[in-house]
Design a protein that fits this description.
This protein is an alpha/beta fold. The chain is built from 20 helices and 17 strands. It has helices at residues 34-37, 61-85, 104-110, 114-117, 132-139, 180-206, 221-233, 250-261, 278-286, 304-307, 323-335, 361-366, 372-378, 395-409, 419-427, 433-447, 460-467, 493-511, 516-523, 527-536, and strands spanning 27-28, 46-50, 55-60, 89-94, 99-102, 143-148, 156-165, 168-178, 240-243, 268-272, 287-288, 301-302, 312-316, 337-338, 347-348, 352-357, 381-384. The protein has a five-stranded antiparallel sheet with strand order 5-4-8-7-6. A five-stranded parallel sheet has the order 10-13-16-9-17. Strands 1-2-3 form a three-stranded mixed sheet. The chain is elongated.
């Protein structure tokens, strides 16, 4: 707006009759900025203008005042027209937190007239804790396209910046766009999407997905290595021992081994060895004949081994199996046969056995808590599932998957996990592994009611563990993480996350043969959501 101010030559008077007054006036060159000339009027009402030659004329303070007033009115007209043309609700508050300007758009959005609000404290009309403009005035914080609720019944996107003069904040300006209708429509869409998802799941149960790895999320090198091992394992029917900490998803990997080899009609029977009392374990595993013991079903009962015929029996937490039953399981593995409880006729075991544990079986053998011969029978091929702290580059994909699941379940719309929350997720050690991450995302989804995930929603144990670490020296973040040592420190957090997400999407798109509909289905999102995300990332 500096070009609106007059220059000296536009104010020049050439009537030299002032010389007859005999006044001694300051002389300045014609190139002098008006701002530098104005202080000279403190001692006189006129200034001579002269370059290298004779006097060009003079300027009068009265002319300067009139020119400044005209420039002020012109600037005010430009300013007001610009604000009214912007179309959004624009508010300007002064350093006393009073409303200095209120556009017609603000009148329509908030149903408050200019006459009512201009000159009044903004806090008289809105809850102070909901006023971003007040926060900007007091803290100097600038925001861009931040969602907030100026009133309980209203949603808006806001841009806010402090007004500074000579290094001091003298006010704040906020531009808001009412998105209440869009939010309500989106909530309706989310509700309908949830119904569609439930229908898709029902259809999926009737027509299972042909990809056995669809539920295993992650693209880290260690996960890729696990999947490659599964492909090799699935070419045989050999017994498999899956090793991994609690919460790593051992049953998912066992199911993938089963699905990759067996037909869709083949049963997959899972039994948790730590959840069944020792007195009932034998009858659960081998079944029993009628009249086998008091209180038994008069018709008898099939055991898990028989139910798994032609498919897979998954023995989870095999380290919890009672020692006396370990001998009988060893016979099943060696002879492929067994006797039901109370039975006299031998039955054949025609199922593949996959066992899993989170315990150190060799240590248990040394303490006489697990049979060594059974260990070697089970450990024909072993598959080691890495803990989440060793595959932190998968946290982003897992978070998005769980966020999609729980957003639909609890009817919460969360567009994005903020960078500061994601940074905490990446720096946590995850002793409970993927199960703990899933629980944390469920907690965040439940506590988030305004679509904005906040760090304080994380569990206390989570944040206390983070505080004990030094972020700058944490060497446990894997190299493929967006925050690993190889990342470009000149990029912002969001830029690094966008690069990582772009690479991940391109990798999955290539694996899907370039078919975006297939990719959207694999990611558990709609095709429109996928297109919007790729558009945002410039793909």
């Amino acid at each position: 707006m500096k070009h609106l101010l007059p220059d000296l030559m536009s104010l020049l008077r050439t009537d030299m009759s002032i010389l007859d007054s005999g006044l001694s006036l300051p002389i300045i060159p014609s190139s002098t900025p008006l701002a530098d000339a104005i202080p000279l009027f403190d001692t006189c009402s006129y200034l001579f203008i002269q370059d290298d030659g004779p006097l060009l004329g003079y300027i009068a303070v009265s002319d300067v005042l009139q020119a400044m007033m005209h420039a002020h009115r012109l600037m005010e007209a430009y300013f007001e027209t610009t604000l009214e043309t912007a179309g959004s609700a624009l508010t300007l508050i002064n350093e006393d937190a009073k409303v200095a300007y209120w556009t017609t758009g603000a009148e329509h959005v908030f149903s408050i007239s200019k006459k009512e609000i201009i000159g009044q404290p903004a806090a008289d009309f809105f809850p102070p804790d909901r006023l971003q403009s007040l926060k900007t005035l007091y803290t100097g914080e600038s925001v861009y396209r931040k969602q907030h609720q100026p009133r309980p019944d209203m949603f808006a996107l806001i841009n806010a910046r402090p007004v500074q003069l000579d290094g001091h904040i003298v006010g704040a300006v906020a531009a808001e766009v009412d998105i209440t209708t869009e939010i309500r429509l989106h909530q309706e869409l989310l509700h309908m999407t949830s119904k569609v998802q439930h229908l898709e799941k029902a259809v999926a149960r009737l027509r299972p997905n042909s990809d056995p790895f669809v539920k295993i999320k992650g693209s880290s090198p260690v996960i890729k290595q696990c999947l490659e091992t599964i492909r090799k394992i699935s070419t045989t029917s050999a017994t498999v021992l899956i090793l991994g900490e609690s919460g790593t998803g051992k049953e998912l990997f066992a199911k993938a081994i089963h699905d990759l080899r067996e037909p869709q009609t083949a049963p997959f029977i899972a039994i948790n060895c730590g959840a069944i009392p020792a007195s009932l374990f034998e009858s659960e595993l081998f079944g029993y004949e009628r009249g086998a013991f008091s209180g038994a079903d008069p018709k008898g009962k099939k055991g898990k081994i028989e139910l798994a015929e032609g498919g897979t029996l998954f023995l989870d937490e095999i380290g919890e199996m009672p020692l006396e039953l370990q001998v009988k399981l060893l016979r099943v593995l060696q002879e492929k046969s067994y006797f039901p409880v109370g039975g006299t006729r031998m039955k054949q075991a025609s199922c593949r056995i996959i066992a899993a544990t989170n315990q150190n079986l060799l240590g248990m053998i040394a303490r006489n808590q697990f049979r060594e011969d059974l260990y070697y029978r089970l450990n024909v091929i072993n598959l080691v599932i890495p803990p989440l702290r060793m595959r932190k580059e998968d946290i982003y994909e897992l978070t998005q998957t769980f966020l999609q699941e729980f957003s639909l379940l609890y009817n919460r719309h969360i567009e994005l996990v903020p960078p500061e929350v994601f940074k905490l997720l990446f720096h946590y050690d995850w002793p409970g592994n993927v199960r703990e991450l899933r629980n944390v995302i469920e907690r965040l989804t439940i506590l988030t009611t305004d679509r904005e995930v906040k760090p304080e929603y994380l569990p206390d144990t989570f944040t206390s563990a983070i505080e004990q670490e030094s972020y700058g020296s944490d060497e446990r973040v894997q190299l493929h993480s967006p925050f690993g040592p190889e990342s470009d420190s000149t990029l912002s957090y969001q830029e690094r996350m966008d690069i990582y997400e772009s690479e991940l999407l391109l990798q999955y798109l290539e694996a899907a043969g370039g078919n975006k509909q297939t990719l959207a289905k694999q990611l558990g999102i709609s095709r429109a959501t996928l297109y919007n995300r790729m558009k945002r990332l410039g793909l």
